[in-house]
Write a sequence for this structure.
């Protein structure tokens, strides 16, 4: 990418429409302010990273975005709609999907079934439709299964593993199935919570490539929490740094990297 | 097929096959076939057909509870409440209890002359299903924010509350008024017998029609359970059982889906209740004790939580042990060896012992849950490709 392109890209990110925006988002647990007035935006079709030392409030922030926690203050605007007090399943139905820091697959369900659960909000079968199994329900189920296999293939889970119970899959496949399950809900925004945790450098590199491919193929925005600086620097177009619940820096990866406050947060004050 | 195990889905058991059919299908077909001819083998008015009918109704109840506990993973210790509500619905709408009313729908001529509300059982069945489904959802509400043991305590209390209401509502409900709702321990008696179209009204001495009605009810409930389990709803239940946080994050509306599980489970309990009400011919408060909930729960744990055929087997075995094996077959054993007690007095002790033995030897139940075994069966017919190295993204 030549310099003018890069400039154009940055302009697009800064001025273009945002898929997600938070305003003064705050979460207080008793006496602890886990997230303190964080305002930020994820531009459409961008890959944005949130970094910060352990306990900085990154996962709490994620949990507010997906509705698992109710913010103490502030608001979350997704795709032009205020979703601050919505339930997690409603937010998912609007187009936010996520993975978890510690993989949370449905252990006794097969890879396929896990992905089918991901499609829940896109399927319409009712109780009576399911009992009678009307032609429409039959068709919907068949299509859902085809789609599940397609998504699993896309993330790179071998067809021979599709019927395996999730808890019996290899660690790498579990990560992949979790991404497939998230993708199955047709998200506009994908939240990845430490996707490269427990991966070796090659696997992390593959995942980095894969995130770009995802964005380009599916036209979605990706927000990730990540500790691996190589991944963060390699993939993100914008980095937000949290420390003690506060946003201490934001911007292009290279700029953030040399920000004195970021260096201080990670390495401590010098001199 | 010597290498069949190589591609076998891990974590799911390989279905055994006999000819073109999976073994489980053949066993199920044989069992249903035997069930169909059973009342022609045994005395149609005798104790065994009576016990078999009871066992089939337990199957209906156990499968209902299995939806709540086995599929959705919500430990319900108050299931007796729905059985009670179902039975009372039968009593209210199928007896002369409300003698000031005079409503008759689809009942035989001799009942037309009697006071009270007399509806055909086929009408009472859906009414009871609706009542209990509503009661189930009502019970569900306070448990929505709870997990595990706490759900068990709330549901236990609910079961007890319904039991108390049944005992004390012979003069006023919740202490208000003087309306007689349940007739307390005396109960509602006699309750109309089932009267299906095209055949004669059921009688007490010929148990065949009762037996077949119970069998039909049980088979319908088995069918509905299978259909629900293999649907979008069933997947949502199992997902909630496995990981509620992940489930809600994947777009499953947990409140609605849990309430649905409670309502469906309760409806089956209520339908079974109407049958017992008419089969026994009386509905009284002493039928609805806490031990009943535990008995049905023991059936599904013994059979295998979440496994439909397992639950059927668990319900049949415990019911037969309770109503036939202990009182009829082994009851005289202690006296024969010179001991002075009835085996029936040890009923609960024997159950407890059986459950402990089961938990030690086969904690997963008689037939453990093997989800989607049949659906995935064709995978095993594909040629082996053991040498193919897995493609990774």
């Amino acid at each position: 990418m030549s310099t003018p392109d890069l400039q154009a890209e940055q302009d697009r990110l800064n001025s273009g429409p945002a898929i997600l925006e938070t305003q003064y988002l705050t979460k207080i647990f008793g006496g602890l302010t886990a997230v303190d007035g964080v305002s930020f935006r994820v531009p459409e079709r961008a890959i944005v990273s949130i970094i910060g030392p352990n306990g900085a409030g990154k996962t709490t922030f994620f949990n507010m975005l997906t509705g698992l926690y109710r913010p103490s203050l502030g608001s979350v605007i997704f795709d032009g709609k205020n979703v601050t007090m919505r339930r997690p399943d409603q937010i998912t139905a609007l187009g936010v999907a996520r993975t978890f820091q510690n993989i949370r697959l449905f252990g006794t369900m097969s890879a396929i079934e896990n992905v089918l659960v991901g499609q829940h909000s896109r399927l319409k079968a009712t109780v009576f439709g399911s009992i009678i199994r009307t032609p429409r329900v039959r068709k919907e189920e068949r299509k859902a299964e085809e789609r599940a296999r397609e998504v699993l293939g896309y993330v790179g889970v071998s067809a021979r593993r599709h019927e395996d119970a999730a808890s019996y899959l290899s660690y790498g496949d579990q990560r992949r199935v979790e991404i497939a399950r998230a993708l199955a809900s047709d998200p506009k925004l994908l939240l990845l919570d430490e996707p490269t945790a427990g991966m070796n450098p090659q696997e992390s590199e593959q995942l980095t490539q894969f995130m770009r491919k995802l964005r380009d193929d599916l036209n979605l925005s990706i927000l990730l929490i990540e500790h691996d600086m190589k991944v963060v620097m390699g993939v993100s177009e914008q980095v937000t740094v949290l420390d003690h619940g506060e946003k201490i820096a934001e911007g292009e990866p290279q700029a953030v990297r040399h920000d004195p406050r970021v260096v201080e947060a990670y390495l401590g004050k010098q001199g | 097929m010597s290498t069949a195990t190589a591609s076998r889905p891990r974590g799911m058991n390989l279905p055994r096959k006999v000819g073109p059919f999976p073994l489980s299908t053949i066993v199920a077909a044989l069992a249903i076939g035997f069930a169909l001819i059973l009342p022609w083998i045994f005395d149609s008015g005798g104790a065994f057909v009576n016990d078999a009918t009871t066992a089939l109704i337990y199957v209906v109840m156990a499968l209902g509870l299995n939806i709540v506990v086995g599929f959705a993973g919500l430990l319900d210790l108050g299931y007796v409440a729905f059985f009670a509500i179902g039975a009372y619905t039968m009593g209210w709408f199928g007896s002369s209890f409300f003698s000031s009313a005079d409503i008759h729908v689809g009942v035989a001529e001799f009942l037309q002359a009697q006071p009270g509300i007399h509806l055909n059982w086929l009408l009472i069945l859906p009414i009871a299903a609706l009542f209990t489904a509503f009661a189930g959802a009502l019970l569900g509400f306070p448990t929505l924010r709870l997990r595990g043991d706490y759900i068990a305590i709330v549901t236990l209390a609910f079961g007890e509350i319904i039991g108390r209401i049944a005992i004390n509502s012979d003069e006023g409900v919740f202490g208000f008024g003087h309306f007689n709702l349940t007739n307390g321990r005396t109960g509602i008696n006699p309750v109309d017998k089932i009267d299906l179209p095209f055949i004669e009204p059921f009688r007490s001495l010929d148990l065949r029609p009762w037996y077949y009605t119970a069998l039909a009810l049980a088979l319908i409930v088995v069918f509905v359970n299978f259909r629900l389990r293999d649907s979008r709803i069933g997947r949502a239940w199992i997902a909630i059982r496995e990981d509620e946080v992940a489930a809600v994050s994947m777009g499953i509306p947990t409140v609605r889906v849990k309430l649905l599980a409670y309502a469906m489970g309760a409806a089956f309990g209520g339908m079974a209740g109407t049958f017992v009400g008419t089969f026994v011919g009386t509905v009284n408060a002493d039928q609805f004790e806490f031990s009943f909930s535990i008995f049905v729960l023991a059936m599904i744990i013994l059979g295998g939580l979440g496994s439909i055929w397992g639950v059927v087997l668990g319900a049949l075995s415990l019911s037969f042990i309770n109503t036939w094996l202990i009182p009829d077959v082994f009851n005289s054993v202690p006296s024969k060896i010179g001991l002075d007690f009835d085996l029936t007095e040890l009923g609960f002790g024997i159950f407890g012992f059986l459950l402990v033995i089961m938990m030690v030897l086969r904690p997963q139940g008689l037939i453990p849950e093997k989800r989607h075994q049949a659906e995935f069966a064709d995978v095993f017919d594909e040629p082996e490709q053991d040498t193919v190295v897995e493609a990774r993204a």
User: Anything to note?
Assistant: The mean pLDDT of chain B is 86. The interface with chain A takes residues 7, 9-12, 224, 227-228, 231-236, 238-239, 242-243, 245-254, 260, 264, 369, 371-372, 376, 379, 385, 388, 390-393 of chain B (CB under 8 Å). The first strand of chain B starts at residue 17 and ends at 18. Residues 86 and 182 of chain B are 13 Å apart (CA to CA).
